[in-house]
Amino acid sequence: MRLPGAGFSLALLAAAAWLLKSDLTPGQPSGEAGLRSEWVFLDLPGASRGFVRVQPGEPLGFVVERKAAGLRALLPRAALEAPLEGGDQVLVRAGPASGSPALVLAPLAERIRFLMGRPLNVNRATAQEMELLPGVGPKLGQRIEAFRNLSGEFRSADDLLSVPGVGRALVSKIQSRICFTESVIRNRSLPELRPFDHAAWGRWKTC
Fold it and tell me: What is the DSSP string of the chain?
């Protein structure tokens, strides 16, 4: 399945910023994010592409029923039961006439999730995305990413103190806006799940 390119990603980022600009501070912890924590991006055959509101944990099947009811019968049960939360994206493309559609179910890019009020996952974010954090510029963002690639993923805010240029004052400033979920989705290519693997979905979630 061909995935959206850079131009589409920029348009998506602009749409997220416009949609959510009146809400809470970017990067606010999800427990306080309110409205922002409940938007999911959908790209489904037979439905308009864009953001929709969901209840936290709402099954994908409920959303498909509302937006593209005819698609429900074509998706595997495990996919329909997958719980959604704010900052997820669902991409579905028509499959062969005798087969199931191609499905991608994964978190949006960290920069978009951050604008939606989610904390920034420093184990998934790129150096450029690190710059969304207060006090983090291009050089420090690159150092954080390089340290992570060399030494492994961060497990707590205190681990960042090992990065040259990161001090206690900076950690105190950003710790409420970051998280440390293990990441198997650091690169930009998303998985194709044919059929949808419910066990894999858990590994693809982010904080």
Answer: -PPP-HHHHHHHHHHHHHHHTTSS-TT--GGG-GGGGGEEEEE-TTS--EEEE--TT-BHHHHHHHH-GGGGGGS-HHHHTPBP-TTEEEEEE---TTSPPEEEEEEPPHHHHHHTTPPEETTT--HHHHTTSTT--HHHHHHHHHHHHHH----SGGGGGGSTT--HHHHHHHGGGEE----S--SSPPPPBSS--HHHHHHH---
